[in-house]
Write a structure and sequence with these properties.
Blueprint (H helix, E strand, L loop, with lengths): L7 H14 L4 H4 L4 H8 L13 H19 L11 E3 L4 E2 H11 L4 H8 L21 H22 L11 H21 L3 E11 L2 E10 L10 H13 L4 E5 L1
Parallel strand pairs: 4-5
Antiparallel strand pairs: 1-2, 3-4
């Protein structure tokens, strides 16, 4: 038996839920979801009985069963949930959403709904301010996963290392690779005369890589900074990284 108030969908869902519970143990009854209730209400197998905007009403019946079972067993309602459910209407879990977003490289909430049906019914789970307050919202989950994906891509790019193909490196990797070669092959002989150098920028120019450097210490203004020293730096970078490197002092 049950008491209900509100729309006919809530009453019909509650009535069907009681029917589905008949003959089942408590453990089996709590496995009945609002999806099962909605399908049982259908007159035609392929025609939904509950309109999307009313799907949350069937969730209430499901919650009541969990509440009754928790009282009967003397446990908390959360013990009946093995996963965090974000969209109660479509029974879509947090882990499923995170996995689908990542695998399919989804970028919008609309894409998430298309792939998972989450957010396609009462829409409470899309963003704050909906029909019900939620612990998790699709907009926040999507942003969190996208941020993590971006960080992962940056980590992977960094893991490529400084010994890979110079042309395929990112700007940051190119500068780090040049600094590494400078540390291992150039700076030592510059420092012997009280000088040094720093890499300012790298720009691609018609198939060439212009490396802009600044001389430091005694190298700044030295007569060989535009001749012998410059040629030695350029030769080292061309030998270790790319024949297309040109060194331009500022």
């Amino acid at each position: 038996k049950f008491k209900s108030f509100g729309c006919g969908t809530a009453i019909a869902s509650s009535d069907m839920m009681t029917q589905l519970c008949i003959g089942k143990t408590v453990d089996d009854a709590v496995k009945i979801t609002n999806i099962d209730v909605e399908k049982a209400l259908r007159d035609e197998p392929d025609v939904p009985a509950v309109p999307p905007q009313k799907m949350h009403c069937s969730v209430m019946a499901y919650d009541v069963i969990k509440k009754a079972a928790s009282i009967y067993k003397g446990v908390d309602m959360d013990e009946f949930e093995t996963e965090i459910i974000v969209c109660e209407c479509a029974r879509v879990s947090l882990s499923t959403l995170q996995e689908v977003i990542k695998i399919n490289d989804l970028k919008t909430v609309e894409e998430v709904t298309d792939y998972t049906k989450a957010g396609g019914f009462c829409k409470s789970c899309i963003k704050p301010g909906g029909h019900e307050e939620r612990d998790y919202y699709l907009v926040d989950i999507l942003k969190g996963v996208r941020d993590e994906m971006d960080k992962e891509q940056m980590r992977e790019a960094a893991d490529v290392g400084l010994d890979g193909d110079f042309e395929s490196m990112t700007l940051v990797q190119k500068i780090k690779a040049i600094d590494k070669v400078a540390d291992e092959n150039i700076r030592a002989f510059l420092e012997m005369d009280g000088g040094n150098m720093e890499v300012i920028d790298v720009k691609e120019n018609e198939g060439k890589y212009d490396v802009y450097i600044r001389y430091l210490g005694s190298c700044d203004g030295c007569s060989s900074s535009s001749t012998g020293t410059l040629y030695a730096i350029e030769a080292a970078l061309q030998d270790k990284l790319s024949k297309n490197i040109r060194v331009l002092p500022l």
